[in-house]
């Protein structure tokens, strides 16, 4: 089944403790992206990747890092999480960034206390 | 600046009634237009998309949307709503400008369906 898999689905952590949210897609998509979803703000893009080793900032990149060492994987790293990063995170992928629409993962609900 | 507006935060309809969700965009170039649905606890699922050609596009789950350039709108419609359509719906716009591609989501419309 074609899908984007995120792990974990739920995560509670403490301020400052590094964490990684994994994202993997099995569709050989070149484009991958991370979004955060907050009430009243919709989805905001954190980082995106056009292909392996090619990443760029989205609209809200502060406090986040990403890497794209393999085509299928695009982990989101929070080096020092803070409470304002409490949010619902989605990974998405697409054959390219414009023409196809995105396939989304099921989301990761992160709480930073 | 590029923007997407979904004027209705919440909409309630009765099962079997027709539905129209509004989406307005602001962008100078010809946009790519999308509608997504998010069921509770799930990620977003693509319902339909418009790039060019026929301005009325059909999607999955019985949804359709009409692109009206003169009104900068891309409203989502369904003739008869089912209880399972209760979800949050997001309009998205993508467009090239100044050598870069921007893809922006609206803030969503939450649909409630009354039995």
Brief rundown of the structure:
The complex is a heterodimer of chains A (113) and B (115). Chain A has 113 residues and is mainly β.
Write up this protein.
The complex is a heterodimer of chains A (113) and B (115). By secondary structure, chain A is mostly beta strands. Chain A has strands spanning 4-7, 10-13, 19-25, 31-38, 42-51, 54-57, 65-66, 76-78, 87-94, 103-104, 108-112. Chain B is an all-beta fold. Helix content of chain B is 0%, strand content 57%. Chain A binds chain B through residues 4, 35, 40-43, 45, 90, 92, 97-107, and chain B through 32, 34, 36, 41-46, 49, 51, 90, 94, 96, 101, 103, 105-108.
Features:
heterodimer; A: mainly beta; 7-stranded mixed β-sheet; 4-stranded antiparallel β-sheet; globular; B: 115 residues; mainly beta; 12 strands; 0% helix
Average of the residue pLDDT scores of chain B: 92
What order do the helices and strands of chain A follow? EEEEEEEEEEE
What is the N-to-C order of secondary-structure elements of chain B (H for helix, E for strand)?
EEEEEEEEEEEE
pLDDT below 50 for ≥5 consecutive residues: which ranges of chain B? none
- Mean pLDDT of chain A comes to 94
Q: Helical proportion of chain A? A: under 10%
How large is the share of residues in beta strands of chain B? over 45%
Total beta-strand segments of chain A: 11
Low-confidence stretches of chain A: none
Q: Radius of gyration of chain B over alpha carbons? A: 14 Å
Secondary structure: number of strands of chain B = 12
Q: Please, what is the oligomeric state?
A: heterodimer
- Biggest beta sheet summary of chain A: 7 strands, mixed
Helical content class of chain B: under 10%
Structural class of chain A: mainly beta
The main pleated sheet of chain B reads as: 6 strands, mixed
The proportion of strand residues of chain A reads over 45%
């Amino acid at each position: 089944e074609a899908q984007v898999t995120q792990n974990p689905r739920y995560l509670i952590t403490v301020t400052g403790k590094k964490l990684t949210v994994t994202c993997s897609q099995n569709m050989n998509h070149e484009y991958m992206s991370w979004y955060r979803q907050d009430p009243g703000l919709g989805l905001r893009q954190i980082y995106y990747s056009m292909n392996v080793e090619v990443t760029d900032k989205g609209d809200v990149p502060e406090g986040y890092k990403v890497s794209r060492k393999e085509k299928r994987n695009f982990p989101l790293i929070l080096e020092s999480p803070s409470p304002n990063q409490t949010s619902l995170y989605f990974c998405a992928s697409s054959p390219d960034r414009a023409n196809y629409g995105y396939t989304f993962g099921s989301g990761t609900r992160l709480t930073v206390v | 600046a590029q923007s997407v507006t979904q004027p209705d935060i919440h909409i309630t309809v009765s099962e079997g009634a027709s539905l129209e969700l509004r989406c307005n965009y602001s962008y100078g170039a010809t946009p790519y237009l999308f509608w997504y649905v998010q069921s509770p606890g799930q990620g977003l699922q693509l319902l339909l998309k418009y790039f060019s050609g026929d301005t009325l596009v059909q999607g999955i789950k019985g949804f359709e949307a009409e692109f009206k350039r003169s009104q900068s709108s891309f409203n989502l419609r369904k003739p008869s709503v089912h209880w399972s359509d209760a979800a949050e719906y997001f309009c998205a716009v993508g467009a090239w400008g100044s050598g870069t591609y921007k893809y922006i989501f609206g803030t969503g419309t939450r649909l409630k369906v009354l039995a």
